[in-house]
Amino acid sequence: xxxxxxxxxxxxxxxxxxxxxxxxxxxxxxxxxxxxxxxxxxxxxxxxxxxxxxxxxxxxxxxxxxxxxxxxxxxxxxxxxxxxxxxxxxxxxxxxxxxxxxxxxxxxxxxxxxxxxxxxxxxxxxxxxxxxxxxxxxxxxxxxxxxxxxxxxxxxxxxxxxxxxxxxxxxxxxxxxxxxxxxxxxxxxxxxxxxxxxxxxxxxxxxxxxxxxxxxxxxxxxxxxxxxxxxxxxxxxxxxxxxxxxxxxxxxxxxxxxxxxxxxxxxxxxxxxxxxxxxxxxxxxxxxxxxxxxxxxxxxxxxxxxxxxxxxxxxxxxxxxxxxxxxxxxxxxxxxxxxxxxxxxxxxxxxxxxxxxxxxxxxxxxxxxxxxxxxxxxxxxxxxxxxxxxxxxxxxxxxxxxxxxxxxxxxxxxxxxxxxxxxxxxxxxx
Length: 430
Prior knowledge:
Blueprint (H helix, E strand, L loop, with lengths): L24 E3 L6 E3 L10 E4 L2 E3 L6 H11 L8 E8 L6 E7 L2 E2 L1 H4 L6 E10 L8 H10 L13 H9 L8 H10 L9 E6 L4 E8 L2 H22 L11 E2 L3 H36 L4 E8 L1 E8 L2 E8 L1 E3 L5 E5 L5 E7 L8 E3 L8 H7 L2 H8 L23 H7 L4 E14 L2
């Protein structure tokens, strides 16, 4: 098996404006036009976009800046909003944004996949321990980790039963909610969620996984987002975007949301853990040896109460990882690029945060218009992946994402790189 450094997939098709051909862009003072950003030493340093908006990154669209400015104008936002270098337009709040609020939370700023995040497990194995043919590894992952929209196990696993017994859900749940949450515990989902087998710069073996709170997190989020919107209308609260509707801690709806949100975060964390356990056992059975030596499990869609300076604030990270001094995180690129294992530097200007990934350059619909299954196969190179499903995975093509290496360069003052992982096997839900 060839396990050394992989060749860069040739013939990459890049379509779009921002950050391509060595040109980097930023909006003008009004955020309405595009003018070049000066690149210093291969990276773009922190930029003060406006009095209440700070950004890192050399490839941030003007539309993203404009959306982020709407959050800065909310009365509940305390201090500045920080944009990570992977920032792009999201529902209400910008993906890749960090929003500090005083005695308030914005459900849509947490997002509909509450607690979505990454987990990475390192093994006491090296490249030479792996079989020449990695297709059985891919098959083993597929057997133990159901994936795809709405898919789950046929029946709740023992791990699910144990977790639900120890973590009863707050508030009311329908029988359908409870059953779906139980059978989807330990499952991947779809979109950009994945499981990968990787090698680091030392040729050590890693398992990397991206997933969240599955259907139950989405349903809880949508219910609270809708309730916040209704409450805003009832109270006559003006919003530039109705998805920025929020709860104040003086309102009972605030406490109901926090309870559900914290439970969904815990579900997401445990969901990733259950998948790592099952996947590790299946993969190691194929290899015939090995054991896990360390694990990192981190959210990148969440909010929590934190002390910053002399203030206690709710810090909401939508597509961002907590990166206080020494905090370990996992930052993936795309299914055909690298993943970075990092340690936080605790930059107070970023609210102790960093990017959660590369960030999309093209929407899913745009990617399907611009690229083909053949383009995806070319960019995946020699990796082992679901080639038969290439047509369904085109929207996840590496060229639909920003350059992860540039993203990492742009946040050199936010994190320290500990390991760089390259994929050998990629498994995604379709």
